[in-house]
Write a structure and sequence with these properties.
The chain is an alpha+beta fold. It is about 20% helix and about 35% strand.
Length: about 140
């Protein structure tokens, strides 16, 4: 079975993680007002490099952030890490998102498995849990 990804503008396989990703894209759009055009899914990058499009035939390990939201200046603003519903949001999941953020350098990190969602906001050089996530018009 497939599901429409409004960010990639194509049908993608409906895996459990993809279901969570598509649900959260809808939440970001419908509840928080983020336009689709400032969000990207499956953003590829290498550690120690800027965001890139993978060249054919490269043997480097490619990492993919599930969802990245960009601000009005096209700078990454939010990193979202999605997990299957049965995967708990552990310290290891948070560490994965923090590693991704060492390249993306966002102000917000979101972890979600569709059942639980944890938000972190950057304060100085540290991310702290928060209950508040900004709507699009607030950024």
């Amino acid at each position: 079975m497939d599901i429409w990804d409004p960010l990639r503008k194509k049908l993608v396989a409906l895996t459990p993680e993809e279901g969570v990703r598509q649900w959260f894209i809808k939440v970001l759009h419908d509840q928080f007002g983020y336009p689709y055009h400032i969000m990207r899914s499956e953003v590829a990058f290498n550690f120690g490099q800027e965001l890139f499009s993978m060249a054919a035939g490269s043997s480097r390990k490619v990492y993919r952030a599930d969802i990245v939201i960009y601000d009005r200046a096209a700078k990454p603003l939010v990193t979202v890490e999605c997990k299957r519903p049965e995967v708990p949001l552990t310290e290891a999941v948070a560490q994965q998102a923090l590693r991704y953020n060492s390249v993306l350098d966002t102000r917000w990190i979101v972890l979600t498995n569709g059942t639980n969602t944890i938000l972190f906001h950057r304060e100085g050089n540290t991310f702290v849990p928060t209950a508040d996530f900004p709507k699009y018009e607030e950024i």
